[in-house]
Specification:
6 strands, alpha+beta
Length: 205
């Protein structure tokens, strides 16, 4: 798919989101107090999304994310649980809809998996996260040397299957909701806000 395809579909999804933002992102957010949030974040910092859910809905923007790595179980429907993944995305209008360049950056990062000592110092934090799937990184800016000076973020997020058409990862590129500089958390855009074109001509291709 060319850049125009992703640009057009992203614009459609942003319009759908602005007209009908979801009331909630999580199906089980029963946490309300500061103690609730602190307790669950101590289990896994990915659960910061429970604290940030309302802010992410209000302040978030739809982007095209590119998976760097994901738990292998996410590429099949069973076991039917949610898992963590690492991705990159770019607020830059040109790079943010350039699927080939986003994929190339993601593959360069992945090439250092389990070889952090061989990675440039400026990528060491990200590579450690890729190499150790328990380590979390949130909205880490990638260096200009990798992005040609474009704004690109690397982040860990929880992939909620209910937001995926088919309830599994079928492609590396997917629409996500993020608010860099405001929220640590990001998430897959709820599937009812995906454009038909993105689903029919890319996701299910």
């Amino acid at each position: 798919m060319n850049n125009d395809f992703f640009a057009n579909e992203l614009e459609l999804m942003r319009e759908k989101y602005s007209q009908n933002p979801p009331e909630f992102l999580l199906k089980d957010n029963v946490y309300q107090t500061e103690k609730d949030f602190a307790d669950i974040e101590n289990i896994d910092s990915l659960y910061t999304i429970y604290r940030e859910e309302k802010t992410l809905i209000k302040k978030g923007t739809v982007f095209i994310g590119c998976i760097v790595q994901a738990n292998n179980n996410l590429f099949r429907r069973f076991p039917p649980f949610d898992y963590a993944a690492d991705m990159i995305y770019s607020p830059d209008p040109a790079l943010g809809t350039n699927g080939k360049q986003l994929y190339a950056i993601s593959r360069k990062l992945y090439s250092y998996k389990d070889r952090p000592n061989e990675a440039p110092e400026e990528l060491r934090e990200v590579v450690l996260s890729i190499s150790d799937e328990i380590t979390r990184c949130f909205n880490v800016p990638l260096p200009d040397s990798l992005t040609n000076g474009r704004e690109v973020y690397f982040t860990t997020f929880k992939v909620m299957r209910k937001n995926l058409p088919g309830k599994k990862l079928q492609q590396n590129l997917l629409p996500i909701l993020a608010a860099p500089g405001i929220c640590k958390s990001s998430t897959v855009l709820p599937k009812d806000l995906w454009s038909e074109g993105f689903i029919d001509h890319f996701w299910n291709d």
